[in-house]
Amino acid sequence: MAYEYRAANPDPDRATYMDSLTFLDRAAKAKPQPVYVLHGEEHFLKRQVVAALRKIVLGAEDDSFGLSTFAGDKATFAAVRNELSTLPFLAPRRLVVVEGADPFVQEERPKLEKYVAESAATGVLVLEVKSWPANTKLAKLVPENTTIHCKPPPTHDLPQWCAGRCATQYGKQLAGPAARLLVDLVGTEMGQLDQELNKLATYIGEASRIETADVDQLVGDSRAEKTFEIFVLIGNGETGKALTMLDRLLDQGEDPLKLLGAFSWQLRRLVQASRLQQQKMPLAEALEKAGVPHFARRNAEQQLRHYGPRVNRLYDWLLQTDQQLKGGSQLPPRTVLEQFVIKLARTAPR
User: Which residues are bridge partners to 39 per DSSP?
Assistant: First the structure.
């Protein structure tokens, strides 16, 4: 899936850039440019862009002799400039990467501004930074197609990215529900998602398609099955027992965010089934269309009765709890999850 970068720049103080996924999508046809800036917080995408640049600059048979790497907190412009000017053995140009280059850029900004205007023909400079203020002279000197923003796609697009990555990198199909469960269980860090895709592709062996059960078994360690037991208790209004089981999972080392991901996977299916039912679809058909397994449908019906009209608030509750677990609350994660379970288990007013 490609993401288009902004081609227009209505604000002169705001530099345009290319999205990293767009760059990677076009890398096979790209030509080497003198300077690249990789900015943003997603380290996996930065690694992918650097790997693509190695092929662009050094060729498919890259043997690493043409690559030089510097640490940004120790690099000097003189050393970097010397590498850029030195033609590698049996290679047309040299690739010089400054990792964590924020302090390097801050210290050497005037020299970098001059270099960008008069860059060496023998070298390609890559600055890997977290911050790249668009209103600086240096940012405006670097072309938009080599200013690459390494930011993950929106969370709702990550399952599609996982499916595409799984097909192109590992040669396996990833079922839509399996992709959504993977993101729920693992989170939004793309490097971790890629590691799990690699493991899943190996796990299924000669099979061509990764299913939801594969993700739950290998990635979730049956986490969805464990939380299903909590939802049985919630559906019965047994708050104390549900909290006891939650505490047991947390005491066993379960990550609160990944538990919430498993909760989310189950609750979203209930919301979808409820909305289909509100559109006059028979409940059994709605549950099937929402992806509720046959063995879980009786409990799902009980949960829908338990929530009543509150089912339409489940998405809001999930979002609020997710924000709280990610730093939006001063309460311990255990307390946040316990409050969430209490809210779910509370009997709907009649």
Answer: 129, 149
Helix, strand, or coil (residue 18): strand
Sign of CA dihedral 343, 346, 347, 350: negative
Q: In the numeric block, which tokens belong to residue 312?
A: 């339409």
Which band of pLDDT confidence, cut at 50, 70 and 90, is reported for residue 10? very low
Report CA Rg, the chain. Answer: 25
Q: Could you tell me if 67 and 95 are in contact, meaning their C-beta atoms sit under 8 angstroms apart?
A: yes
Of 223, 228, 210, the C-alpha closest to 159 is 210
On the 0-12 / 13-18 / 19+ scale of CB atoms within 10 A, 280 is exposed
314 close to 307: Cβ distance less than 8 angstroms: yes
Closest CA to 299 of 225, 219, 198: 225
- CA distances 219 to 183, 201, 262, 346, Å, are 10, 12, 11, 31
Q: Long-range contact list for 14-18, CB < 8 A, 24+ apart?
A: 14/134, 14/135, 15/132, 15/134, 15/135, 15/139, 15/140, 15/142, 15/144, 15/147, 16/144, 16/147, 17/144, 17/147, 17/148, 17/149, 18/144, 18/145, 18/146, 18/147, 18/148, 18/149
The residue ranges of DSSP E strands in the chain, in sequence order, are 18-19, 35-39, 67-71, 94-99, 123-129, 147-149, 173-174, 209-210
pLDDT at 251: 87
Handedness of CA 147, 150, 153, 159 (dihedral sign): positive
Q: Are residues 71 and 36 in the same domain?
A: yes
Domain boundary among 149, 184, 199: 149
> Considering the chain, what percentage of its residues have pLDDT values greater than 70?
90
CATH number at residue 162: 1.10.8.60
> In which domain, by residue range, is 100 found?
18-149
CATH number at residue 278: 1.20.272.10
Give the number of domains in the chain: 3
The separation between CA 66 and the C-alpha centre of its own chain, rounded to angstroms, equals: 31
Q: What average pLDDT does this structure show over 331-345?
A: 92
Nearest CA-CA partner of 179 in 203, 228, 153, 215: 215
Q: Could you give the dihedral angle defined by the CA atoms of residues 138, 144, 147 and 152, in that order, rounded to the nearest 10 degrees?
A: 140
Q: Are residues 207 and 250 in the same domain?
A: no
